[in-house]
Structures are given as structure tokens and as C-alpha cells.
Amino acid sequence: MRVDAQRVKIQGHLLHRITMHPDDHVPLRGAAIFYHGQGDYAERYPEVLAPFTERGIRCVVTDLPGHGYSPGRRGHCGDENLLDAIIDSTLEGFEGLPYGVMGHSMGGLLAARHLVLSGQGRFAKPSMAWINAPLIEPSRGRSKIFLSLVRFLAVWFPEMTMSTGVTAKMCRKVESEGAGQGEVRIERADRPLWHSRISFGWAAVLLKASRLIRDHGDDISNDVPILLTQGTADLVCPAEITRVFNAGLTQENKRYIEFEGGLHELFSAEDKDSLTRVLNEWLDSLSALGE
């Protein structure tokens, strides 16, 4: 895999984008857009997406504004117009290749939004979709009063941010150096690019995306193969919500796989190899991208 980084100017924002290219000896079969999570960033994903590049699929991840190496107030990603402009820019770079849609957490919500909008004709129809631990219900655990306040503040103070409440403990475990057999420690969030902020304006965008999926999920094309992966111990995006989302999908070729005891970031630590195995098996079963 070769990883290229570049700056792309979209609606006045100079955004960081990485492209993961298949090795030179691997025929190019398609492309894929990957949506990262809230507070997340592109550089975490080359290893995660290796099963795709190994099969000739070029993968593109753009740090949304306020994320990773993209400038802006931490947690404020702009609005729907900017989001769709980023998507259009990515798809234009695919130059007509068959493409897939992928995402983790908030990115899973955005990937599902993409599937609905493509079914409505806004974007070209994807050839496949992988959604991991999706934030299908960003309103979970919030009162109606709080949600009304968020929508009010989104109008008047869209760039003001609040904490998402997500911590490293909720996302992943790693083995502790010197720990006894079976012991684990919680990895610290010592990654300088990671953050746990979200703006009121962007929160309103996610709430609207959630309503779109709830009200128009039937618009997703029935012939798009979909893989859903989910940890059963995920506290950020609980498995019971993903199960309901999966049950509502009518795709002819869908697969839902749970990882017992898995936390939010299945691609970290102890679940990484199992997730890679699932991705490899799923990709080998697909014929949507052709030879």
C-alpha cells in the first residue's frame, strides 16, 4: 500500500486528505470513501483498510474541519453543504470507478446517510458498504429539552462546542506491560490529534442525518451489499441499536456480525485480527466490483 497525503480546498476550507493506493502489482478494481468518527482522524485507518487496498480498492479519508490535520475549531465540521461538497470532491476523484462507502461511529451514521441519499439520486450508487459501530441514534440518552436547546444553539451559536462524553475507556482495551495473565489496562487517550468535542451546529447535522435514516431508510438500494460490524460491549454505540438498524435493512446481500465483548473500536487491540478476518472473508465473497 502507498499512502499519499494532500491538502484539498473545499468551500474555503483547506482540508487534509489521505489516499491509500493498492500496490503497483495489484490491479485497480474500485475505490472507497471512508468516514471517520467524531474526534477521529484519517491517519488511524491505513492498517484498518488494508484488506481493501490488497484487493485493488483505493481508499480515501478526509479529515473533516476541526479534526486531525484539518484546521478549524475542534469538533465543528461545518454544515450539510460543506459535507456534501467534501463527498462530491471525493467522488469526482474516483473518475467513474465502482466505489464503496465505509465509516466508523459518527462515520457509520454518515455512511448510512450516504446510502439513503444515493438511493434518492443525490450521489452515484455505491457497489458496497461497510459500517462499523454506527452512531445511528446520536440523541440516545438526551432529553427532549436538551435536544431542543441544541437545535436552538445550532442556529445562533453553531461553532460553540461541548464534550461528547466519549473517553478512551469506552473505546478500547490493550494488554498491560507486566500485567498478569488475563489482566488488561485501559489505554490512555494520549493521541494529540484525537479529541472529544462537538459543536452545536454539527450536532444538529447529525440529528438530521439520524432522522433521514429513520424516515427514509427504505430508499437505500436493495442490491448494495452491506456489512455491519458491532461489539456487544460497546458503550458509545450500543449493539441493541445497531441490531434494530440491521433488522430494518432490506438488502438482498447484507451481513451483520457481532464481536462478543468487543468495545467501540473493534480495530484496536484484541479484536483487530478477528475484524480483519471478517473483512477479508466478506470482500472475497463479493462480486459487485468485478474483476
Sequence-ordered SSE layout with sheet pairings:
Layout (H helix, E strand, L loop, with lengths): L1 E9 L2 E9 L8 E6 L14 H4 L3 E6 L17 H15 L4 E6 L1 H14 L8 E5 L11 H13 L4 E3 L9 E3 L8 E3 L10 E3 H17 L9 E6 L7 H10 L5 E6 L12 H14 L6
Parallel strand pairs: 3-4, 3-5, 5-6, 6-11, 11-12
Antiparallel strand pairs: 1-2, 2-4, 7-10, 8-9
Helix pairs in contact: 3-5, 4-5
How would you portray this structure in words?
Helices cover 30% and strands 22% of the residues. The chain is built from 7 helices and 12 strands. Helix 1 links the parallel strand 3 and strand 4. The two termini are 19 Å apart.
Question: What's this entry about, in short?
Answer:
By secondary structure, this protein is α/β, with parallel strands linked by helices. 30% of the residues lie in helices and 22% in strands. The chain has a single domain, classed as Rossmann fold (3-Layer(aba) Sandwich), CATH 3.40.50.1820.
